[in-house]
Write a structure and sequence with these properties.
Layout: E1 8-14, H1 36-47, E2 51-56, H2 58-67, E3 74-78, H3 85-96, E4 102-107, H4 115-123, E5 129-135, E6 138-139, E7 143-146, H5 147-155, H6 163-167, E8 171-176, H7 189-199
Parallel strand pairs: 1-2, 1-4, 2-3, 5-8
Antiparallel strand pairs: 4-7, 5-6, 5-7
């Protein structure tokens, strides 16, 4: 792994109850036969992150542990306050990190993250900024948090903030990409059916 990537982490958010999807998004399959979760983990490990933290809920954590495909390097964190939303999941994930140089925030419903996107975000990293990929004027995911942004999140007393609004209080740097996958979210069966048709 290039030394420049040392102390880089990822928090994977998979604590939602997937009410609209009606099944666990983590176990949906991509065309390779991998689950969303497997694909995401493989992408980040191959890219070279030092640390992976997975935030889950009560219903999902047992299933994930029993799947036996998670590398030992993945740290599981349980969110018992789902009503507080993504902000709290991110905060829990960051609290579990040992490193705090910079951290990707990755949603479970977008397994399309590419190494080139991670390279782009990492090359544009700033300690005092959130780095956001932009495709045709629209912001997408994952995002990369600088050290100071991580510290702001960890020090914030409230747990039920809207994540986007909170990050918007600080510096946000948008970087253009030609990868449309940064905008993709699989939220319901119709989204997944469309995804399957487009990739078949």
């Amino acid at each position: 792994m290039p030394s420049s990537k040392k102390n880089t982490s990822v928090v994977i958010l998979s604590a939602g109850i997937s009410a609209r999807m009606q099944t666990d998004k983590a176990f949906l399959k991509v065309d390779s036969g991998q689950t969303f979760l497997e694909k995401i983990i493989q992408t980040y490990i191959s890219w070279g992150v030092d640390e992976l933290v997975l935030v889950t809920n009560d219903q999902l954590i047992g299933k994930i542990k029993n799947a036996n495909y998670l590398p030992e390097s993945v740290r599981n964190v349980l969110n018992k306050q789902l009503g507080w939303g993504r902000f709290y999941s991110v905060k829990l994930g960051l609290q579990a990190m040992k490193n705090n140089n910079c951290c990707f925030i990755q949603n479970i419903d977008n397994p399309f993250t590419e190494p080139e996107t991670l390279d782009l975000l990492f090359e544009n990293r700033e300690e005092d900024a959130t780095i956001v990929p932009v495709f045709e004027g629209r912001g997408g995911h994952p995002v990369l948090l600088g050290t100071q942004i991580i510290n702001h999140l960890l020090e914030h007393r409230k747990n039920d903030e809207i994540l986007k609004d909170f990050l918007g209080r600080f510096k946000v740097r948008k970087v253009e990409t030609d990868t449309s996958g940064v905008l993709t979210n699989i939220n319901n069966p119709a989204d997944y059916d469309k995804f399957v048709r487009e990739r078949s």
